[in-house]
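Researcher: First entry.
Model:
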Amino acid sequence: MSRSKFSADQFLFHRLEKRKEQNALRKLVQTTELSDFCSNDYIGFARSIKLARHISKSCSKLKESNGSGGSRLLAGNSVFAENLELFIADLHNVPAALLYNSGYDANLGIFSALGQKGNTIIYDELIHASVHDGMRLSGATTYLFKHNDLKHLEERLNIAEGTIYVAVESIYSMDGDSAPLKEIVRLCKKYAANLIVDEAHATGITQNKGRGRVQELKLENEVFARVHTYGKGLGCHGAAVLGSKLLRDFLINYSRSFIYTTALPNNSLVAIHEAYLLLAKSEPEIKKLHKQIHTFKKHLSKKVISYLIPSESPIQCLVVGGNESVKKIAEDLQTNGFDVRPILNPTVPKGKERLRICIHSFNTRKEIKSLCSFLNEYFDNKK
């Protein structure tokens, strides 16, 4: 009978020491009074006093409750939750929506449920970790294709078997660039594949009242499923899977991260609803956000631009390479008043470590120009 070589504590210690040796140990850091170039609160909803007041007012009209009391299939369902799903579906021009507790839960739930044995999931190599975890729980055959590489995607589609799903993000969380959705849709139609689009970083920031890239490109009827999350551009919490009524019924029956978790409480549902209502009136903030992105790129030197991953989204990333190097630059930025965080290996591939800079509608022009000046000086003096 084999016995473990290490105790649990010894195992944990050795794994953490390995992370330290790689200069990749993660730690929780409290938020500060630095200029925010870090959060996903792109149009300021998470800090919006107006949104907080609307949520408070609407919550006061509902039956008082601190929690939902159970899963949606037990005590946690409500008329408000179902009406909210109808509202979300109508807004996104789709037959049905199903609420999840987070974007992570939504991706975990849809990919683990759909990925039955004999089916195939083809995913962009930069797809979010939550999709990877969903696929690991599935029985499907999985293939990656090189980032935004249509030729490689078609090669994968050629060898796929069973029911085929293709997974992409409309805007990628760690690069900030966009998927070529129209071209991917054409390939999916050619090979009878079902496209699933994660709209996490497009929700709230696209110039169609923030409804995402799929609707911006008028591809609603060409996409099998969309995942919209609310903890980023909408400044609250939760997520929804959008698709057919048949998909909704299937997920209610087979999606474990939906079935076996306590449902969102009323105040979270109200927050989602009020955030959508405010979003409909937030075109000036969205336009301002895109002007801010232009301002940021305009004031960078040619050398800094050479480090920048091409992106028209609020996510602007400077690839530095090396955990130690990127951590050092981030520390210097924070010391100088800019909340910019390093993205380290293993979150991104070795050699692709980067500064992930998020632009917001609430960043002042002075803050942006000061950040650019710091980056210009830092990189222009870099050998």
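Researcher: Second entry.
Model:
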Amino acid sequence: MKAEKFSESEQTELKSSTGELKEALISISAILNRHRQGKLYFGITDTGKVIGQDISKNTIREISRTICAKIEPKIYPEIEELLVENKKCIQVSFCGFDVLYSADGRYYIRVGDEDRKLSTAEVTKIILDTRLKNLRWDSQPYPDTSITDISSAKIKAFLKIAGLNMHTIANTLENLNLTDRGILTNTALLLFAKQPEKFFQNAMLRCAVFAGETTSYIADRQEFTGDIFFLIKKAEEYIIKNIYIGMRIEGLRREDVPEIDQEAIREVVVNAFCHRDYFDPDSITILVFKDRVEVRNPGGLTGGLTIQDIRTKKVSKRRNELICNIFHRAHYVEKFGRGISFVLEREPNAQFEQVGDIFISTLFRKESVKHGDRLVNGLVNGLVNGLVNGLSYNQQKILELMQINPKITTRMIASKTKISLTTVDNNIKKLKEHGYLRRIGNQKSGYWEILNR
């Protein structure tokens, strides 16, 4: 090592010898209270000059014993002997993630390369602020992570949407309050990590489609992992893919119109990711039934609010303030808590309920009609009334399954309807002959298209 590399900073302290061990304790506590980690050297002056340190077999043991005895809460530093410019020195590496650390009963904070004593009022404020922060999952630091865990592509994509400039990833995260004393927060990793699921098992979305109004008959099931911007996109896509799309003619242009307002869908999904309880390891779930779509998220209402409060008094309480702020910058949410009102303006029949610790948002589908004692889907663009009456029961079931999953195979149809593969093939042939159905693409990668006669 070269001498010019050593200089004091907010995370580095230099001491001439272990004769300054008492002052070293103050620096360690001050650095911990500011940055949670740092290094201290014995045998190097505060100007960076290497003078060396006499080291006996008890020297390192005495340093360790004194630090453990005098720093509270206790820390266990790594202490090693170094040879710098052919002179013996000692390096002390330390870290700690408690609220405040004291040296011999007194509290200090690192300011530049100096240690400033904290007043009683300052100590009280730091403790209260930290305890409040620790109640929030999104603002908690995640130890043993680094900038290398962050995707620069995700950061750049976000900044483009938010209309912000980037200097370095570290600087950007700090400006967005996504670091705590240089350590990545949970939000930083959940939003921008290369693999968020590596850190959080609940960085996941579960989706399912059911053939009826209950969960007894599953037609499709999928799971997605990734950052929550990605999961929001997948949630929207999954719902839109599994409900019916009508059309509206605007001049000479056809405009697709989902049976559930797409902005209401987006708002419900975004709210689920904004307000869920991330301490809960469970995931957000999308359930598509014949008559409704449910979005379920772990974590009931917070702050003593009730369903009546959020529906009529238009008030909200944020569980994840930091996540909401990032979503606001990305234009995903407003700051004024209009989410429920926004949904009700577009889907007046929407329902919200809390079952245990699960919050459920329900959006009702419009293109389902009763046929006898069965609920038969509106197939495509609201088509059913004239279509169903001319079809056999098996043909109706085949079309229903194809509508739910256009890529379904004939073997899957036979399995779900409990009819033979030959019967399935014969019915598909008749549906094609009479103009109800056609196949797009090949058997392996193609799909079924139901036709409006």
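Model: Note on the second entry: The radius of gyration is 31 Å.
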